[in-house]
Amino acid sequence: MEQNARKLLIIEDDPIIANIYRSKFEKEGYEAEIAADGQVGFYRLHEGQFDALLLDLMLPQMNGLEILRKIRAQKRFEKFPVIVFTNAYLGNIAHEAAQAGATHIFFKANTTPRQIIDTLNSILFLPSSADASSAPPPGPSNSFPVNRPTTLTAPSAPAGWTPPNQFPGPSPAAGPSPPPASTQPPPQSGTSGYPPMNPSQPSYPARPASAYPSPGAPTAPSNYQATNPAGPYPAGTVPAAASPMMSSSPLFSSAPQGIGTGREGDLAFQAEILRTFLETAPESINVLRKLLQTLTQSEGDAVRVSHLLDLSRKIHSMTGNAGLAGLHAIPQIGAAFEALVKELCGAPGNLNASTIHTVAQTIDFLGVLIHKGTAADSGENRPINILVVDDEVISRRAVTYALEKAHLKPISVEDPLMAYKILENNVFDLVITDVDMPGMTGFELCTKLRALPHNKSTPVIFVTGLTDFESRARSVLSGGNDLIAKPFMLIELALKALTFIIRGRIS
Hints:
alpha/beta; six-stranded mixed beta sheet; five-stranded parallel beta sheet
């Protein structure tokens, strides 16, 4: 290790992700140290002399937001570089992290170590070891700096989108017609056919440190054991005080060795991570199924919340690992899945037959994606077209808003007869329709839809208040793929939509 190496503290409870980032930063000349829970990391930050902090927000003992707020209230850490990981579907947490003083926020599911390294080198005014021209380009919407007032903007619409009420009626093979050039923003460079990982956010200023009370230096709890201030933990180890999870990793205790820096090293590194992830992920799916079984057999909100937290942590780990492996579909589904389970933790009363069905359905689909490996990411560059049909304006807006949580922009119509005309002349990836509508029911619309060659296999989700057996049976008989009952959780419908869209792309 270089004598004047910059020191980095990584507070991350997932042992695989933590060791991967430590290994990569050490190869770039950093001294990197791991803390496996928020409380250990908070006290270690005050013990050592670190130059920067890499902070996951979802941590045991003390969450990342709490750490960020406490250190920003101290003069010593007012300008201290803090790079934060979060889930793109947990938009409120990203807002709070920005207001609490994060220097830069990355969406964990589609961020590579190279992007983090280059960002931190820039913040610390260090040269990048990789040639900028050969470094992998960052995703179009996987992060944003927040050390100044920031506006988060939605990525441009993919080519081929048609806004509501603009249907010239092209041939079926052409898909929905684009609006005039003056109203159609060009696609972002690198934007894929899968929706980007960050939902649109409004602008907001970073909250100054003075907005928080100054607690002074922290006092360690009586059971806290200080880590060795002389240097980072040895490769593959962490202190016992950190977390027992770190010694039970199903993948590896340290990141792959013998891989260099730069573009070539990044590719070799990612290939090794991908191979290991695909080898071990089936066992993770089995764990998720066992956790769901335990959840469904439990009684009482407190017990269910505990099981939901276990499920959330496992999904969080899988999503981050898949992102590091360079996959796209698995992190996309995983991030939305984690957001659903997090919402259920806060409202366990919403754990019902519908949400349990969605959780089981998602676990099974993750298993399919893992089996397909990189082939599951094929066809990403095609635009996504969704039709929402509902005669009630409030319900239609709710469905549209739910899709926008996953950055899906649907065509929305109230008249099922008009919807059928649109379906006759356009190809869609997904149709979401109410059941009880004047002129034509959702079941009738679905039956007619199945007679159209270009939409005969388009997935159809019924959104309705009819939850009895008869309506479910009719949805199957009319060719529907799924049914969700009102009132529904917004993120649940978003997750269902993502699942059917990606399933259709890879089938």
